[in-house]
User: Fold this.
Amino acid sequence: MSVFSVMEHLPPFESTVAAHGATVLRVCRAVVGHDDADDAWSETFLAALKAYPSLATGSNIEAWLVTIAHRKSLDILRARARRPIPVAEMADAPSPDHRSDAFHDLWPLVARLPLKQRQAVAYHYIVGLPHPQIAEIVGATPAAVRRAASDGIAALRRARRDARSESGPQPPREKGRS
Amino acid sequence: MTADHPADGLLESDRLRELDGLLEPIAESTLSRLHARLEAEADNRELLDVAVSTIDSPVGRILLAATEIGLVRVAFAIEDHDVVLESLAARVSPRIIQAPSRLESAARQIDDYFAGARQQFEVPLDWQLSRGFRRQVLEHLNQIGYGHTESYAAVAAAAGSPRAVRAVGSACATNPLPIVVPCHRVLRSDGALGGYLGGLEAKRILLGLEGAA
Assistant:
């Protein structure tokens, strides 16, 4: 008899989509970019739906979904790499459909990070998974994951600062200049 | 030493500010577009074990659920739709998705019924939530026509067990397909309403609609 025996059955899958759909979409956008994020999201939830009845009750559903999203995203990135005319870099500008989501300026900056940093930023900062759990998902050491996450954030911060100083009508940062 | 949480090099406030944009809410239209795609592809890949949808009616909000076989559950709001969904997950399958398209025909027929434009339902039924004597009772109910009523005792006799009056009552009380399988047409011998899983007010409304009250 475990303390978890209260939860004898899985909740309806719909409640899983409602609870985690947005988070999984953010993860997909961060890892594969906006243009392929819908495909990654769909493949993730279809695979999750298929496997759902055999999921142990009491499992961490969010971590389970991220694990699936991780694999589906890698499939999409591999398929993209095999395309005859590969897109060298992810689109800088999100398609018009995505402009309704606020702060869209940050996504293109994430898209320019190396894959491992995108994954670490997504799983640690967007989802909130601890480094050791991410390490299991991506097959790396917790230390490597931690480094990738903090490098990713540092790079994002630099990129955002550069973007602002290029375009924004901001006051000069250094003092004492005439 | 907190080996678990060595400094990330960032304070909580720093990381939140850096990532504000990534944590903004996703537009509702984006999520519903993705959901519609999930509904369609799940159905194509035969992963949509239970499609559910809700409709509004004169007896309140009604939950409809269908398997690939047919309509498996009709539930009144008074039954608590969340509880009903949990029970479907446990008894039928947890692969439950909001997918109104599979329920279009059932929903339209129920709308027509409440509009007085339909007296009989023509939707495939999945009887898996009802077994044995209860199912026998419920299947008999389809022979009580629109606008007619029968007593619990008469139904018991028709189902082959004249003394099982109480069992008829509990068959009606646990009818997984109310409205469509017309347990509201069963009354007490003295003409009193008896019970109803949708509440007595709902039973009155249904009988009134059919001109049987």
The longest helix of chain A spans residues 142-167.
